[in-house]
Amino acid sequence: MNIAVYRASLSALAIAAASPAFAQANPDLATTDEAGDTIVVTASRSGEGIRIDQLGSSVTVLDAKTIENRQTRVLSDVLRDVPGVAVSRLGAIGGQTQLRIRGTEGNHVLTLIDGIEVSDPFNGEYDFGTLIASPAARIEVLRGQQSSLYGSDAIGGVVHYITLTGAEAPGISARAEGGSFETFSGDVRVAGVAGDLDYAVSGAYLHTGGSPTARFGTRDIGSDNVGVSGKLIWSPSESFKLTGVARYGYTDAEFNNSEFDGTSPLYGTIVDSPGAYYTSQSFHGLLRAEFTALDGRWTNALTGQVTDTVRKSYSAFGRDGGSEGRRYKGSFESSLRFGTDTVVHRLTAAVDVEREEFRNTTPSPFVFQGKRDTDNIGFVGQYELLAGDAFAVGASVRHDENDRFDDATTFRIQSSYKLPTGTRIRGAYGTGVKNPGYYELYGYSDGVFIGNPDLRPEKSKGWEAGIEQTIGDNQATIGVTYFDNKLKGEIYTTYPAPDFIATPANRTTTSKQRGVEVFASARPIPQIELDLAYTWLKARENGAVEVRRPKHVASFNATIFSNDERFSTTLTLRYNGRQTDVAFLDPIFFAPTTVSLKEYVLVNLNANYKLTDAISVFARVENLANEDYEEVFSYRTQGRAAYGGVRVSF
């Protein structure tokens, strides 16, 4: 179910109506093996990861070079280039941003940062508009049901943002840039290795004066984002390693509400709302102790993590909404690797313990402000077989016991086979589960959004089959994947008579999503790099098209380098097909109406030049064609914008 930022307004209800665990991954595992092949951390609970060409599930890895070449400042922008992904942002930078994978809901995507689950425990999903992207990071997007590894939430897939260690990206770097809409951003990073200690500390800031987000408005919607993070890895011996991760984020962003004056011709659309803004403050921490024995073949890890989020919203008359959410997690993982040099078996067992605490802090006599909590324990088993470079198969199963919902068991099987011709055939089948969140169970405020404590968890199952072909000496790779998913018990927003007040319920019908993902990447010569992604999606609920799920999404990136690679320029084209959304245009019965959002094409162009080995200058133009479009009904987006800056690194 799509959960809005906390607005006691029509805009909040429009967002809520637009949509019908534990996570632990090794935060300090090397991202390539000795041969230089990409290792996917998120696809295994073994602590060792798996090579990307041995995985049956669909996965996309965006490395630090890709993030830097595309001059990504907000994480959600570069995720638009991933097959199967659709992004919806409320207007300008700083607006609430949702990500959907393969037609699932925004809260069906599990989001990790350095192994920490970062979704807001109160509303059950992560706001991708609050994360400033760093070039010293990599992103893994694992698609398909992954609840057998991570429990609730991982129905559509997993997005894992991994900051680089001091050994992977040592040195001191700083960036400053400015440009359109009174925008300024900067970051600084210090990283390296000192004896047994690997360290990486960074900070980032993004400010924008913004632009109008109401169709006929003039109020600029600005925002400020601050992010500070640190990762320390202490390795006093080859058999013991201690990892600590801490991350703090703060967002202060303006927003507009819907017009709820029934006599206004703009009723149900976004209008200027002077004085309306929200703040979001979050802290995420992780401590992981890892022990190895039997020459590294037996690995045991004990991990604890915490997430703490505080959100507040304000109107011209003062604070009118808020929430607090905390998540405490602990896990133990034990993995044994055995076999020969060519055939490797891995057995992994894990236990995950989790408590989530919630509190609605909206200042209203119609809101329960006491604390509620849920407890969950999950048991995981995983087997992986790696037979040389050609064949791999894996299976995982998880059993969750929750103090509020029925026990749930999920599983996944996947396999990959590579022919001598460079052709790889792969496939996977799995099940997933999503527990109702606090907002859905207990509501927001009487008379605005009433909770439903009788909600059942959503359950999903699906399969995928794909084929990939490598051309030449890894000069190009193309791939096609077909997927087919079914979701039962989907949670949606209903408006029962006679009061027509919003409340969630489980559907009795089945939601179906199927589609095709295509990708191609090539570097025909050292001076040119090309990437293409395309998704065709058919998402239906009882025959009706599901909202904010475009049928066609495509992207193309072309980067040209000079011979010495001191200069580079990247052209980005992003196409988003026609899609539907929900609007509330009836002031009498407050009935939702399906509306159509037109297709659009965004063109971005950037360039980077190294003046010296330590100093680089860069510039970019976003929305070069000044496209006028909406990703959410009646929310205007930014027009053409230009930025420039300098980066220094030692």
Question: How does this structure look, described?
Answer:
The chain has one domain (10-649): Maltoporin, Chain A (Beta Barrel). The chain is mostly beta strands. The strands form 8 sheets. The protein has a 22-stranded antiparallel beta barrel. Strands 3-8-9-6-7 form a 5-stranded mixed β-sheet. The protein is built from 5 helices and 40 strands.
Q: What's the alpha carbon Rg, rounded to whole Å? A: 24 Å
Distance between the termini: 46 Å
Uncertain stretches of 5 or more adjacent residues:
1-24
CATH topology: Maltoporin, Chain A
The main sheet comes to: 22 strands, antiparallel, barrel
Helix content class: under 10%
Coarse structural class: mainly beta
CATH level 1 class label = Mainly Beta
Q: What's the average pLDDT?
A: 92
What's the count of strands?
40
Could you give the topology of this structure?
Elements: H1 10-17, E1 39-40, E2 50-51, E3 59-62, H2 64-69, H3 75-79, E4 85-89, E5 97-101, E6 109-113, E7 116-117, E8 137-143, H4 147-150, E9 157-163, E10 171-179, E11 183-194, E12 197-212, E13 220-237, E14 240-254, E15 257-258, E16 270-271, E17 277-293, E18 298-315, E19 318-339, E20 343-360, E21 371-387, E22 391-402, E23 408-418, E24 423-434, H5 438-442, E25 443-445, E26 449-450, E27 458-471, E28 476-488, E29 491-494, E30 503-506, E31 510-522, E32 528-541, E33 544-545, E34 552-561, E35 567-576, E36 579-584, E37 592-597, E38 600-610, E39 615-622, E40 641-649
Parallel strand pairs: 6-9
Antiparallel strand pairs: 1-2, 3-8, 4-5, 6-7, 8-9, 10-11, 10-40, 11-12, 12-13, 13-14, 14-17, 15-16, 17-18, 18-19, 19-20, 20-21, 21-22, 22-23, 23-24, 24-27, 25-26, 27-28, 28-31, 29-30, 31-32, 32-33, 32-34, 34-35, 35-38, 36-37, 38-39, 39-40
